[in-house]
Amino acid sequence: ITLDRVRADRQPRRVPHDRHRRLGEGDEPPLVVAGDPHHAGVPHRVRVHHLLGLQHQVAEQALDLGFYISFSGIVSFKTAESLREVARFVPADRLLVETDAPYLAPVPFRGKTNQPAYVRHVAEAVAAARGESLEAIAEITTRNFFQLFKDAKPS
User: Fold this and answer.
1) How far out from the chain centre does Cα 2 lie?
2) Residues near 121 by beta carbon (within 8 Å), at least 6 away in sequence
3) CB-based burial label for 109 (10 Å; 0-12, 13-18, 19+)
4) 35 vs 98, which has greater pLDDT?
5) Fewest Cβ atoms closer than 10 Å to its Cβ: which of 64, 118, 124, 153?
6) What's the mean pLDDT when you consider all of the chain?
7) What value does the mean pLDDT take over residues 104-112?
8) Buried b vs exposed e over 76-100: b needs ≥16 C-beta within 10 Å?
9) How large a percentage of the chain has pLDDT more than 90?
10) Inter-residue contact 33 to 17 (CB < 8 Å)
11) From CA 124, how far away is CA 106, in angstroms rounded?
12) Model pLDDT, residue 154
């Protein structure tokens, strides 16, 4: 599997990304497209757009294209109010959280190597932004994950 990434010069490049292969089944494993939501022509079964600091308009375009919106540790940064505004806007049924490990660890681990265990802190920041409980965000994002990756099995 590869992910399409867009470089600063707007030219796509293919990046190997085998960790999502385990979630697939048969000849059509899920493909997560990270980056520019204008990759509508990329053949894939699922779409996830993770927001690194994008504005409301880009999130709206991604949602219109059928993307889920995933928030990383950046949403917890003091300077990321515009991203928290987007977190308030995204419909619950299209919301995901992630760590983007090993980069961009959430507060209180900012500046350190990120790890999957820190996803709770991302969910806490999203919950605070939306005025919801951590438990509600955990339930919503878990349900969305299994809706998106139908072949994944809970452990």
Assistant:
1) 16
2) 73, 76, 106, 107, 108, 109
3) middle
4) 98
5) 153
6) 75
7) 94
8) bbeebeebbebbeebeeebbbbbbb
9) 45
10) no
11) 10
12) 82
Q: Can you tell me the distance from the alpha carbon of 44 to that of 79, in angstroms, rounded to the nearest whole number?
A: 34
Residues 27 and 67: their CA atoms lie apart, in Å, by 22
Tokens for 139, please give them.
Answer: 């339930």
Spatial separation of the C-alpha atoms in residues 40 and 21, rounded to whole Å: 21
SS in 3 state form for the chain?
CEEEEECCCCCEEEEECHHHHHHCCCCCCCCCCCCCCCCCCCCCCCCEEEECCCCHHHHHHHHHCCCEEEECHHHHCCCCHHHHHHHHHCCHHHEEECCCCCCCCCCCCCCCCCCHHHHHHHHHHHHHHHCCCHHHHHHHHHHHHHHHCCCCCCC
Answer whether the bond into residue 91 is a cis peptide, omega within 30°: no
Identify the residue whose tokens are 């880009």: 58
What's the rounded Cα separation, in Å, for the pair 106 and 45?
Answer: 29
